[in-house]
Amino acid sequence: MTRLLYRDDAYLQRCETQVASVDARGIRLEATVFYAAAGGQPGDSGVLRLADGATVAIVDAIPGEAPDEVIHVPAPGVGAPAVGTPVVAEIDWPRRYRHMRLHTCMHLLCAAVPYPVTGGQIAADRARLDFDTQGEALDKDRLSARLNELVAGAHPVAPRWISEAELAANPQLVRTMSVKPPAGQGRVRLLEIDGVDLQPCGGTHVRNTSEIGRVAVLKIESKGRRNRRVVVGFVE
């Protein structure tokens, strides 16, 4: 199990830690600021810095088999440091921050489109959610205006935890049809956008919706008789 430092502070860009294990899949650390790919959010990239000045490029972070296990994937041909080696783990912050802004924006999109979510994906420049709208059309300009209204509202954003029993008693909190929150750990992490949205999420987010910046709905696609895909990007 890795101590997931980003879970309590998504703004941490680096941490001092040491190598816990190494295998063919990659490197496990005792603690990390690297987010492992999950929930449509990509894994972080970055570097491990060694005491002698050498660096190990990390091209991806993926989940392991155990809960809270993060595997740091080194670049092809790059050797891994030995178990017990002290390192400074440092993420590609500009890339991560764009993921944080877009991930939080997807929660605003959930609030703006009151239908179950059937899929989603986040990239560095755009993100999308698929909704089971039961065939109802969505208006691109109206959605863009609503998203920017919520962004400009400067709503505080923060995680909090509830028990699995509390979640079971409030099933309406789960918006995603295809992916359910992990069970068996006794508690579930929620992401709350004050006055706007509350749902389970293990991803990284900004502290305030104003950090997202101006966005636009780039396109709305039909994905079958009932599903609509909404793609959102930054307006730079």
User: Number of DSSP helices?
Assistant: 3
What is the average per-residue confidence, as pLDDT, rounded to a whole number? 94
| The CATH class of the largest domain | Alpha Beta
CATH fold topology of the largest domain: Threonyl-tRNA Synthetase, Chain A, domain 2
- Give the strand tally: 15
Strand arrangement, largest sheet?
A: 3-2-8-5-6-7
Assign an overall shape.
globular
Note the beta-strand portion: 35-45%
| Main β-sheet description | 6 strands, antiparallel
End-to-end gap = 39 Å
Oligomeric state of the chains in view: single chain
The ordered string of helix (H) and strand (E) elements is EEEEEEEEHEEHEHEEEE
Compute the CA-based radius of gyration. Answer: 19 Å
- Domain module tally: 2
Account of the 3D structure:
- By secondary structure, this protein is an alpha+beta fold.
- It folds into 2 domains: 3-91, Elongation Factor Tu (Ef-tu), domain 3, CATH 2.40.30; 96-234, Threonyl-tRNA Synthetase, Chain A, domain 2 (2-Layer Sandwich).
- 17% of the residues lie in helices and 37% in strands.
- The protein is built from 3 helices and 15 strands.
- It has helices at 93-112, 140-152, 164-169; strands at 3-4, 14-22, 27-29, 31-32, 46-50, 55-63, 70-74, 86-91, 117-122, 126-132, 157-163, 187-193, 197-200, 215-222, 227-234.
- Strands 3-2-8-5-6-7 form a 6-stranded antiparallel β-sheet, with no helix packed on it. Strands 9-10-15-14 form a 4-stranded antiparallel β-sheet, covered by helices on one side. Strands 11-12-13 form a 3-stranded antiparallel β-sheet.
- Helix 1 (93-112) packs across helix 2 (140-152).
- The mean pLDDT is 94.
